[in-house]
Structure formats: C-alpha cells, structure tokens
Design brief:
This protein is α+β, with helices and mostly antiparallel strands. It is 44% helix and 13% strand.
Length: 278
C-alpha cells in the first residue's frame, strides 16, 4: 500500500466517524463501535458499492473517478478544502463546485478600488470577467467595434476584428491565453459550461480551434501587454496574475506601466463621463 493511499484511507475513516446517522437522516441503529457512519451506510448514501468503498478505505489501488468521489465527499459533508484534499489523495480530477464572489465581494471590491489607477480585473480560470475596476474599464472602453456579449478576456480578443491592431503583441498574447485555458481545463473536463463554451469558440474562431488543438499548457507568468489606446497612444504594460486564495477559481490581473512614457500616458485613458459597464 502506498503512503498516499494509506493517508486517503485514514482521512476517509476520520471524516466518516464525524458524521452521525442523525445528520444524514438515519436512525441511530443501536450500539456502534464508532459514533459515525458505518461503511455500508456511507456507501449506500453515496450510491457506491460497499466492497468498492471498503477497498478505498483500505488503501487498495482501485480506480476512482471525480464523480464518485464527489458523491462520497457530499455524503461526508466535506468543506471545499477537504474536498480538494480528498481528490489530491485519490489522484483524481474533481467535479468542482461552481464558485462566485460572495462573502468576500466587499473585500475584493475594496482591493480593486485601491489598485486604481492601475487597471485591474478579476476573472475566473476561463477568463470570464467577474469584476473590473474603473481604470480597467477606462483602458478598454473603446476596445470593441462589435457588442461585447461574452464579457470574457479571450473572447474579446479573438472575436474582435481590430484586436490585432489594438493589441500589438497579439501573436504572443493569444497563444499564451489559450495555453493557460488548456491548463485550467484539466480541472473542468466534462463540465457542461466549459464544454459548450469551448465548442462555440472553436466553431466561431478557426484561430482558436487551431491553437486549442496544439494542447499547449502554460503557467502564469508576468508578461508584456502592448496596446494602442485612441487617446493615450501606445502603452507598454506588464500583466501580473495573482491568485485569490478564498476563491481558487478566480485570478486577479493587474496592468502596470513598463516604462516612464507609458506611466505618463496612462492617465489619458481615464474617462470623465459616467462609467459604463464593460
């Protein structure tokens, strides 16, 4: 038995002991060796075989899927960090819960506001725009010649006819974003939202389809972004990606000027009119 499998079994036993029958709608069932659920009870509630679950706790080298582990995690009432720990121990791809900006939203809003005048935006790992600050809205206010329907960083680039003129390092930025998307996709394989979105984008953009077919992956790294603004002119920026620990599916992107001329020109991107939604 591997150390990882042994740790997985110990983790499941410990969490099973913490769930009482009453918590899951079962009668106490007389005397128990442990206060928690029996193996057969947990297997029944999770919809898995008793033998399979017993082998899982015993650390045997059996195949496990994210879907089945998700059922076990739900029965054990695991928290999100506990679920992630379970999947790592089982070396399986999780069925991840959908995350949004909820309890932490006021804090994230304050952080984004404090970063102004630096353009900053929070997206999920699919690059859907969750929350931009006003400096980001101003910088990219005139980006679109077509209506912005998807509110997604990658879609905004590959579907905008003038993107190659406005993003001077287009040839580097788009392959990088697709490679980052491919890296994130490994945790969302089979997710209907992801699969439908990717299918639509492949159909809409042959360029994306070709890049996606390369199966290139990339880790986040500071990178240049060279844009042309209708008022400020050329701006040379450095994009930094920061994790949002309370929301593992979210990423904070911050643009900082990479030279003094861009730093001087950045205020020219600001609008005096009432802010409009990106």
């Amino acid at each position: 038995m591997s150390t990882r499998r042994a740790e997985l079994g110990d983790f499941l036993k410990a969490r099973r002991a913490q769930v009482t029958p009453q918590e899951v709608g079962l009668p106490p069932g007389g005397r128990r060796r442990t206060p928690g659920l029996r193996r057969e009870e947990l297997a029944q509630l999770a919809g898995v075989g008793v033998t399979w679950y017993t082998w899982l706790e015993q650390g045997r080298p059996i195949n496990v899927s994210g879907q089945v582990l998700d059922a076990v995690a739900g029965t054990l009432r695991l928290t999100d960090p506990e679920r992630a720990h379970l999947y790592r121990l089982a070396e399986a791809t999780p069925v991840r819960p959908k995350r949004g900006v909820c309890a932490s939203e006021p804090v994230l809003t304050e952080i984004l506001t404090a970063l102004d005048p630096l353009p900053a935006v929070i997206t999920n790992t699919r690059f859907d725009i969750v929350m931009p600050n006003q400096a980001f809205r101003d910088l990219f206010h005139d980006w679109h010649t077509l209506p912005c329907v998807h509110k997604n960083l990658l879609w905004c680039i590959v579907t905008e006819p003038l993107a190659r003129k406005r993003l001077l390092n287009y040839e580097d930025e788009v392959p990088y974003l697709v490679a980052r998307l491919r890296s994130a996709y490994s945790e969302h394989i089979g997710d209907p939202d992801w699969e439908e979105d990717l299918a639509r984008l492949r159909k809409l953009s042959p360029e994306f389809a070709e890049l996606w077919a390369r199966h290139e992956v990339a880790e986040c790294t500071p990178r240049p972004r060279h844009v042309v603004h209708p008022v400020a002119g050329e701006l040379h920026l450095t994009v930094t990606e920061l994790a949002v620990p309370a929301h593992p599916d979210l990423v904070l992107f911050v643009d900082t000027p990479s030279d003094e001329i861009s730093r001087e020109r950045l205020p020219l991107t600001r609008r005096s009119l009432q802010p409009a939604e990106l």
